[in-house]
Structure formats: C-alpha cells, structure tokens
Amino acid sequence: MHQRTAPITILIADDHPLMREGIAAVIHSQADMQVVGEAADGNEAVALYRTLRPDVTLIDLQMPNLNGMEAIVAIRAEFPQACLAILTTFRGDARAMQAIKSGAQGYLLKSSLRKELTDAIRVLAGGHRYIPAEIAGELARHLGHETLTVRELQVLELTARGNGNKEIGRLLTLSEDTVKGHLRSIMDKLGANNRTHAVTIGIERGFLEI
What we know:
Elements: E1 8-13, H1 17-28, E2 33-39, H2 42-52, E3 56-60, H3 68-78, E4 84-88, H4 93-102, E5 106-109, H5 113-125, H6 133-142, H7 150-160, H8 165-172, H9 176-190, H10 195-205
Parallel strand pairs: 1-2, 1-3, 3-4, 4-5
Helix pairs in contact: 2-3, 4-6, 7-9, 7-10, 8-9, 9-10
C-alpha cells in the first residue's frame, strides 16, 4: 500500500479568529498535517484556494461577503476535484443535505471539533466523505421525505419572525387563503401540530437560521 509522505495541507476559512486559532492549534499538534492558509470570509477562501490548492479546506457555513455554501459552489465550479468540508453549529439534516448538494464532502460540527477534527481530515484527505454519525442518522431518517418548496420556506421564515397570515400574504403578494394552504403543507411535511411547532422543527432541522 502506498504511504503518504508529504503532510496533508489544510486551508481554514472562518470569520472568528479564535475559532481559526483553535483549529490551527489542533492541526499543528499532528505531525502529518500543515495549515497553509487562513481566510476570514468566503471571498478570501476562494482566492486562497486558487493560490494554495490545499488537500483539505474547512469552511465555516456562516461568513460575511460569501457564505460557506456559496464559497463551496464557487471553488467546486473552478476546481471539481477540491476536497471541501463545512464547519458549522447547525445539526439539522436540511442544512447538511444542502451542503452535500453544493459539493461538500465533509460536514463537521464545531461542538465536536477537538475530538473528531484530525480523524475527519485524514478521512477526507484519503478521498472519502466524512459525515458525523448523528448527522448521517438524521439524513437517513428524513430520506424520501418531501422537502419544503422555496415559497414554503419564505412563509415559514416570515412565520418565525412573528408575522400573521395577513401580513405574510401582503409581504409575498399572496391571498390569505394561499398562505393558509402553504402553512398546512408545511405542517404536513414537517409533522408539526401547529405553526409554532413548525417553526421549532424548522430551526432544529436547519430550514431556518437563528
């Protein structure tokens, strides 16, 4: 079996300096890994990837200028073989599925970085996907379920902000009956008892950002 001799090169993209420092410290403790660059936003991540071509890129989901998902799409369009992993606090299956569809091979929860980070990097560098067991379980649990449409997501988001049906209708140029129809569909798809429950599930599964 061919043994890797060069260290795994890693680019870290996160808008929080302390998070970048923490990740870099864990990586620096490993003899077979090397941080080659750090980006503070999505645009910087794309530019640094272009220059450095790292083996693995860790990208925060929420960043200014270009978010993690947009940065992944941009890098993937230019470099189809890029190895990209999302860093996030979101445990929801909807966000994970969106990241995978955007081209991420990994999905790492910030809460378990210290424990899983180095293992995940080695798995990713070896050309495999890395999805934590709890996220994989959530994805499997909701596999085959109908996803929310763009319009339903808009209605759910406005509901989460405390708007009533009439106000949602005004903001989206829809009749009140149409809004009610969308809410019924949302509750049905999410298995919610009422609109408040639908918002709670929407947050848990990652359809809504908080």
